[in-house]
Amino acid sequence: MPYDKIKHGRSKHISNYGGVGSLIETTDNSIIIETFDEWGYNELNDKLAHYIIKDDRLLQRLKNRFPNLKHLVAIPIHKEYPKNNPPTVQPKASYFPKWFYCTRCHRFANYSEWKKRWIASGKKTDFFYPPKCSNKDCKENHLEQIRFVMTCRNGHIHDLPWEFWNNRLPTDRSQHDEEENDNNNEKSSGPQLNREKCCGDSQDLIYKISRENTELSGIWVECKSCKKKANLKGIFNYEQLCLGKKYWLKPVNGKFHEENCTAQASVKLKTSNSVYYSNTLSSLYIPEMQNPLSSEIRLDIDNMVAKQKYSNEQIVELICDLKGVQKELVEQYLETGDIKYIPDNIYRETEYKYFLEKEQPDNKQIKFGVIYCSEKIHGFSKLVKIDKLKKITVQTSFTRNEPIDVDSILQNQNEYEYAVQRQSVSKNNFDTKTLPALESYGEGILFVLDEQKLKQWERQAEVIERTEKIKSNAQNADWKSHQIIAKSLTSRKVLIHTLSHLLMRELEYVCGYPASSLSERLYVSETMHGFLISAFDGTDGYLGGLSNLCNDLENLNNIISSAIFSATDCSSDPICIESEGQGVGQLNLAACHSCTLTPETTCELSNLYLDRKLIVNKDYGFFNSLLD
């Protein structure tokens, strides 16, 4: 696929919903992002320094699972380049799904077949993108991409067997028995295809959509040669043994990589959330825990180590003599140290304590200050006004069909509890030397609750009972991630998470940013009791409208009070406030779209584990005295 056809934001390459192996919608149909090994970094060892993102704290944490990891590499920014001088480093992608149809002549075929027809008609390949019909009467009509894909629990993705779709076995009942099964409350049987051979040697498929029938039965595949046809009724009940396709790896000799897979593949819409879950880790930059060596010097050291001609002592002497850097810095960079697994809460505790206990660094890479507010803001003991903040997000792998929790991302595949299998973002898997990352600058406010009041509150029987209700619902949830997260769920976490959501909804009206531009970072454990609300560049934020709210504590107190009062009423009450479980897996209690939920991109826990009743109930709510 030509480099100048991929036009979408780089932030989509590393997010909760995008990255290597993901399907991204563009103006020219959807594409699958290929493994970043093919983006050109391996060919630019001498220029790699320009793309390196330095965060030694995060790098050290990742080495538990990626022992050979050397650098986090930035996603290149798309620019307009002349065709005779394309960029050396760029994301690679290919069209997926691979099947397209023409809305004029209705011809239905694989992408490679469409391209062959285009070339056979005497047209230039450069003008084929985006895919067009070569039929003279269609006047180069742009092709429509099919909407369905198949995925399995092992992370593979492939097209449906469209060439066999109209060729049914005699036992197939999918075209007839759906209404009967609905009456019996049974799952309809999926289409049964004869996959031994196509419907004929001269197969010529068409894909037609009825204007009157808007159901799946109004869409059908037909062969113009043999006249066999079948509609799409029951398509979501169709399953088959997975083909083990890895379309995110670069094709070799025109064929995409595949591996043996024993899982069943099921049908999904290509835009479904369950098609892709990115496994990402984020880290707030702490200057004190960084090695100040430049990217160029780091690469020089790496190259010397790779040649295996010098001992570490010789490398230290040579680098110090040639570059004039301190001996301790080179030794620190070469030191592997005690590499061990660091749970997410332990990792975050370092950030939490840094902002609360340390002074603002001299290098100005981040800028913050602690504000004591126990007498001015009800329920809170401290605020940290963060005028400048840096966050690094790195993608380690991805899954399909079901997400995994953050603590499982760095664990050995044999150790975690999931049935789904991770797929790597690198063709070198866990032996990769680089991982794709995104560096963002922004601002924020770290809210710290009154610890003494919090400890008294969470001992109440009613509070414990409501938390246990969420944990009980999680035990019966379909996804393993919900069950695992709920094991360590506490009333403190539900309270802080819900409060974070209520404040984000309120801040949308006072700080100038839409809610989708804000994000939360929860700090909850026996020693942590706060949350960070931040806005980063690349959104509509990072203009000072958020952190500057700390300049007027009286006004900020009014904003928080307003958020609490707003939570006392919901347009769905009394159904919402009295709910025993709602949302995915019944993992929310008194929380719905009308009162508590925020845009998916803002929330760390997928809009789950929320209960505003813990905040506003007159008997046991954390802010009940404020409401009185």
UniProtKB/TrEMBL annotation:
<protein>
    <submittedName>
        <fullName>DUF1998 domain-containing protein</fullName>
    </submittedName>
</protein>
<feature type="region of interest" description="Disordered">
    <location>
        <begin position="173"/>
        <end position="196"/>
    </location>
</feature>
<dbReference type="InterPro" id="IPR047721">
    <property type="entry name" value="DrmB"/>
</dbReference>
